[in-house]
Design brief:
The chain is α/β, with parallel strands linked by helices. The protein has 15 helices and 27 strands. Strands 2-17-19-18 form a four-stranded mixed β-sheet, with helices on one face. Strands 4-5-3-16 form a four-stranded mixed β-sheet, with helices on one face. It is globular. The protein binds shikimate-3-phosphate.
Length: 449
């Protein structure tokens, strides 16, 4: 599959986006450990999240899917049965790393395997702390890459100073901590997204924040079964937010999206670049805040993105690089070496594709320097098998002269199965108005321009 993209007319739309990927993984895992039936709505039925669902099913958890975005999970009070075979994590690092933590303390053996892009990714970051907790765990591939083999053992709590700000590492340790003796604490160099902590708390599992910034969990707690509705994924909305931000006069309202403040750093960056952004929390009943984001585009200007911002917008950096290429002046991204360890080396991929589209870019060890010119030219660009590269460059195509073709775009199914349709809606807004009315917030804007 490839995307063929042409310049978009002015965006003036109201949209919603599919469920949050991080929360979907966590909700189904914690529901599976709970003491009863949990109904999960707004679940993201993407390839990555369905890998987690299949894995839990293979360990004796009954999970029904009466609708695409609804799961009925029959929690078994933390009891899992030995998996029927190897656990296939597809290209989902979240599945592999979180399950490594969950499986480390089980009384049975397991093996986690992955497909091509996952098989190159580093697993030492979860293997090291889990071993310190007493796990018998090996990353069998070159340089501590997958598969991961676990021989069931008894764990004990540790205090772990993680060298990397990674929510997947933190989550693996906290899930292992549920099955470890005593107290387990994770300290991060700077805070990563906190969905595991919040989801555990929502299911009435206590975690505590330490004075040193660490997060702790005590073993033996059974999550209390509850229903949960997953809000829209801000990282999916980011593609359209940047598209609207980079169009002077562009206007977009995103409804029912997650507004957890460890995820909304993108909005601050877009404000710095000149866009007008309004964010309104409408609901915090499920601990995770959700609400609306409204954005009005402007001629963007370059900015510097670095330091503590990086872990909190790590998935938005590819699309922010496109914003940088469309802005005036220089956009600098630093301290983002983690980007080289994603589904592909995202620093190299962004630099390669932006250059193909006529932008001037310098690749740094830990980031990029992008000299914005306000325009791009259409090109054929590879996705490198990376969903966020595919989506970012499809959006770049909306701003390019001539046609842009994004090759091997099927990887978008890992996080945003509906992306192709949403892209088509942005390119052909008139048709959207017939099938799905686009509601303009400002009646003065209603003309078809
Ligand atoms: C995720 C954490 C991030 C992010 C990924 C999802 C999660 O990865 O890039 O898409 O759900 O925990 P790291 O933990 O490697 O930073």
């Amino acid at each position: 599959m490839e995307f063929r993209v042409k310049r978009a007319p002015r965006i003036d739309a109201e949209i919603s986006v599919p469920g949050d990927k991080s929360m979907s993984h966590r909700a189904v895992i914690i529901a599976a450990l709970s003491n009863g039936v949990c109904v999960l709505r707004g679940f993201l039925p993407s390839e990555d999240c369905m890998r987690t669902v299949q894995a839990l099913r293979s360990m004796g958890i009954k999970i029904e899917q009466p609708e695409a975005e609804m799961l009925v999970v029959d929690g078994k009070k933390r009891l899992l049965t030995p998996p029927s075979g190897e656990i296939h994590c597809g290209n989902s690092a979240t599945t592999m790393r979180l399950l490594a933590g969950l499986l480390a303390g089980q009384p049975f053996d397991s093996r986690l395997v992955g497909e091509t892009t996952l098989s190159r990714r580093p697993m030492e970051r979860v293997v090291t702390p889990l071993r310190q907790m007493g796990a018998n765990i090996v990353a069998e591939g070159p340089n501590d890459s997958p598969p991961i083999r676990i021989t069931g053992s008894k764990l004990h709590g540790i205090e772990y100073n993680s060298p990397v700000a990674s929510a997947q590492v933190k989550s693996a340790i906290l899930l292992a901590g549920l099955y470890a003796k005593g107290k387990t604490t994770v300290i991060e160099p700077s805070p990563s997204r906190n969905h595991t902590e919040l989801m555990l708390n929502y299911f009435l599992v206590r975690t505590t924040k330490e004075e040193n910034g660490g997060i702790s969990i005590f073993a033996d707690q059974v999550p209390e079964s509850r229903d949960f509705t997953v809000p829209g994924d801000l990282s999916s909305a980011a593609f359209w937010l940047v598209a609207a931000a980079a169009q002077p006069g562009g206007h977009l309202l995103v409804r029912d999206v997650g507004l957890n403040d460890t995820r909304t750093t993108l909005l601050g960056v877009l404000i710095r670049m000149g866009a007008q952004v309004r964010e309104a929390v409408e609901d915090v009943d499920q601990i995770e805040p959700r609400g609306i984001i409204e954005i009005t585009g402007a001629p963007l200007k370059g900015t510097v993105i670095q330091g503590r911002e990086i872990p909190q917008l790590i998935d938005e950096l590819p699309i922010l690089a496109i914003a940088g290429a469309l802005a005036s002046g220089t956009t600098t991204i630093r301290h983002a070496q983690e980007l080289r360890l994603k589904e592909t080396d995202r620093i190299a991929a962004i630099a390669h594709n932006l250059r193909s589209m006529g932008a001037q870019v310098i690749e740094l060890n830990d980031g990029l320097e992008i000299y914005g010119r306000g325009s791009l030219r259409g090109a054929r660009v590879p996705s490198f098998g990376d969903h966020r590269i595919a989506m970012a460059f499809a959006v770049a195509g909306l701003f390019a002269d001539g046609e842009t073709v994004v090759q091997d775009a099927q990887c978008v199914h890992e996080s945003y199965p509906e992306f192709a349709r949403a892209l088509d809606d942005m390119m052909n807004p008139k048709r959207v108005r017939i099938t799905t009315p686009v509601i303009s917030l400002n009646p003065a804007r209603n003309g078809d321009d």
